[in-house]
Amino acid sequence: MKTVFENNEDGTRRFEWFLTEDSTKAVLIEQFNDSAAAKIRVENLFASPVSAEWQERFTPTAVLVCGSVKSDLVELLEPMNPQYLGFEAGFYR
């Protein structure tokens, strides 16, 4: 979370971790204003010293990308083998 604030990632709207009681599984939810803001976050993460530690500690089992995403972000995320889900319907308050 520190890197989000240090890098002035104003387009990051949500950054939350959730853990199972035994701390063996985690879910990270990130929400952005748009695809460009998500790209900035991913670039900062990959360039951060936190990236190596994150890769040592965690083995992602799924990466879901929801909503409209530009091709430059798709390219950047390719090594993570994400699944893309387009917006269908709903609301957010």
Structure described in brief:
The protein has four helices and four strands, in the order H-E-E-H-H-E-H-E. It has 93 residues and is of the alpha+beta class.
Account of the 3D structure:
This protein has 93 residues and is of the alpha+beta class. It has one domain (2-85). It is 35% helix and 23% strand. The strands form 2 sheets. The chain has a two-stranded antiparallel ribbon with strand order 1-2. Strands 3-4 form a two-stranded parallel ribbon. Helix 4 links the parallel strand 3 (64-66) and strand 4 (83-85). Helix 2 packs parallel to helix 4. The longest helix is centred in the middle third of the chain and has 13 residues, at 35-47. The model has no long low-confidence stretch (mean pLDDT 90).
Q: How far apart, in Å, are the first and last alpha carbons? A: 24 Å
The share of residues in helices is 25-40%
Indicate the structural class: alpha+beta
Largest sheet: 2 strands, antiparallel
Radius of gyration (Å)? 14 Å
- Low-pLDDT runs of 5+ residues are none
By oligomeric state, this entry counts as single chain
* Succession of helices and strands: HEEHHEHE
> Counting H and I runs of at least 4 residues, what is the number of helices?
4
| Shape category | globular
Beta strand % = 15-25%
